[in-house]
Design brief:
globular, 231 residues, disordered N terminus, 36% helix, two-stranded parallel sheet, alpha/beta
């Protein structure tokens, strides 16, 4: 397979997850997408587009996928363990930090110019929270790679249509929407975001102009969609 090098050649890692699948859905609906390469542990069924290519890889081994990267100029990464509290710190670091960083390095070396990452609100390399600190350190290392454009999406609670992780998420899905009226001003970024809105914003952001380094929170997720829908 010969890759087409153009601004709408996208490679995705993590497209089978909750946010990734919503981003994928929005990308497949976009008329200006010429090539989409999906990298993951297992193929995604039901995709019948001649410009979509899927490769089964080991997400922790760049040698298993680096040959599929040349020709793409955009990368979208939504890879993650889902619920960090359910895995060890070592496993979290291996997937959410090391695997993502290795993917980013391989993308940079292959000519990718725009890299998008699903992160979290409140991340900082100086945070006292292990999770937020690890994500913050990851973003610092991504910035050091000097992509022409780096987009970091920082949602608070991601609201999915169904409960995926048990009773704790069931409670959150019930309670978080009720907090919205109280999260105003600088607290707006902590509002829960529907997974469909977050996924759409990640997909549609690649088709509009942006900054060299940009971070997005609750308000920006909606503004991206609104901006992309304008004629």
């Amino acid at each position: 397979m010969t890759s087409k090098t153009n601004l709408n050649s996208i490679v995705m890692l993590g497209a089978s997850g909750a946010v990734g699948s919503e981003a994928l859905k929005a990308l497949l609906d976009h008329k200006d997408l010429h090539q989409l390469t999906l990298l993951g542990r297992t193929p995604i069924s039901g995709i019948n587009k001649d410009y979509v290519f899927q490769h089964q890889i080991n997400v922790s081994d760049p040698d298993s996928y680096k040959e599929f990267l040349p020709g793409h100029t955009i990368a979208i990464c939504t890879l993650g363990v889902g619920e960090p509290s359910k895995v060890s710190k070592e496993e979290f670091i291996k997937i959410d930090k090391q695997a993502v960083l290795e993917f980013a390095k391989a993308c940079k070396n292959s000519g990718v110019r725009h890299f998008e990452l699903l992160a979290s609100v409140g991340i900082s390399s100086k945070s006292s929270s292990f999770y937020l600190r690890a994500k913050g350190e990851l973003v610092d290392e991504l910035k050091a790679l000097k992509f022409e454009r780096l987009s970091i999406f920082q949602p608070s609670m991601i609201l999915t249509p169904t409960n995926r992780y048990g009773i704790s998420q069931a409670i959150v899905l019930k309670v978080f929407p009720l907090l919205k009226p109280f999260l105003m001003g600088s607290l707006r970024k902590y509002r829960g975001i529907p997974v469909s809105v977050l996924g759409q914003s990640m997909a549609k952001n690649v088709f509009i102009a942006g900054k060299n380094y940009e971070t997005f929170h609750w308000d920006q997720f909606y503004s991206i969609i609104e901006k992309s829908n304008k004629p």
